[in-house]
Every structure is written in C-alpha cells, then in structure tokens.
Design a protein that fits this description.
By secondary structure, the chain is α+β, with helices and mostly antiparallel strands. The protein has 2 domains: 13-95, 2-Layer Sandwich (Alpha-Beta Plaits), CATH 3.30.70; 102-172. 40% of the residues lie in helices and 21% in strands. The chain contains 5 helices and 6 strands; from the N terminus they run αβαββαβαββα. The chain has helices at residues 13-30, 47-56, 85-95, 114-129, 158-172, and strands spanning 35-41, 63-66, 75-81, 102-109, 136-138, 150-156. The strands form 2 sheets. A 3-stranded antiparallel beta sheet has the order 1-3-2, with helices on one face. Strands 4-6-5 form a 3-stranded antiparallel beta sheet, with helices on one face. It is elongated, with a radius of gyration of 21 Å.
C-alpha cells in the first residue's frame, strides 16, 4: 500500500526535471519488495558509458540510471532483483574497464599567444577532469599561412577524451 508524499526540491529546471524522471521511474513499480536499488561507484568509465555498455547486454530485469552530470560523475543508480545484486555488481565491474589510449586533437588556438593560452586551458582541464597533464600535448605553430595555429591533443582512452571534449564545451557554455 502506498500513500501520497510531498517532496520539496531546490535546483534549476534541469535538475528538477532529472529528479522528477527518477521519481517517476521509481514510482512506476520499478522497485518493489523483491527488488533492490543501490548506487554503484565506477572507476574507469563514465555513468553515460556504463549505461550504454550495460544496455548492449539486454538484461531485462535490471535498470541502470545515470544521474546528473553523467559524463563527469562516477556513480550510477542500479535497480535489480535482490537475488541478482551480486551478479549485477560483477557485470558492472567487468564493463568498467578503460579503452585503449588513442591520440585526438581536442582544442586549438589561432592567437599569437596560442601556445600559452592552450597551456592555461590544459591546466584548467587537468584540474576539472583529473586527467594528468602528461596526457596533453601542445604543438608549435603549425599554420600553413601567416596566421598562427596551435593544436592541443591528448593521448587518452575514448571515454576520457569524451570527458575532455564535454568539459571544453562546458567551459565555453557554463
């Protein structure tokens, strides 16, 4: 038997919408007495990537939900039958593996001070993403004409590259 409850939320429109979606998912009998829900802490991949990889497995009795900032955080909400919790945790630990490192350009500058500007952006990205500075590289001027052109690239896993690109977008549009 259920009863009505009142919940007061504080946050921006997106945060309230995210909580509303979560409440609706939980309220639609996603969780019953035979089911368990818990937060799983990821190590190597983002929650968005975990949800995507888990979806490929087509496990019908389990729901994985990436909460706010799914590209930057490290937690997912798991709803599954109580007797499958250990199995689901094992599956999550097996999909929580980093990919092979690749090299990809992530930013550029066409300023005469481009190298120092990219170095400052790199330092900010290192602080925000906790990806080591040793993964970032900044070119000399590689322009084909008189206008300067500097490139910053990273050698990282695809998930970390996506994290860096998303953070660059977040910096450009806070």
């Amino acid at each position: 038997e259920s009863s009505s409850q009142t919940v007061w939320l504080i946050g921006d429109k997106r945060q309230i919408l995210d909580v509303n979606i979560l409440i609706n998912q939980l309220d639609n009998n996603s969780v019953n007495e035979a089911e368990s829900f818990f937060t799983y802490h990821l190590i190597s991949i983002s929650p968005a990537e975990a949800v995507k990889r888990f979806g490929y497995l087509n496990i019908e009795d389990t729901t994985l939900i990436a909460l706010n900032y799914a590209d930057f955080s490290k937690e997912v909400l798991v709803i599954c039958p109580s007797d499958r919790k250990d199995t689901i945790m094992e599956i999550l630990s097996r999909i929580d593996t980093p990919g092979t490192k690749i090299r990809v350009p992530v930013d550029f500058s066409d300023s005469h001070q481009g190298k120092s500007r990219l170095a400052a952006r790199r330092d900010l990205l290192v602080s925000l993403t906790q990806i080591p500075a040793s993964s970032f590289y900044i070119s000399d001027n590689v322009s084909r004409n008189e206008k300067p052109y500097y490139i910053m690239w990273v050698e990282e896993t695809p998930d970390n590259i996506l994290k860096i690109r998303n953070m660059i977008d977040a910096i450009a549009n806070p």
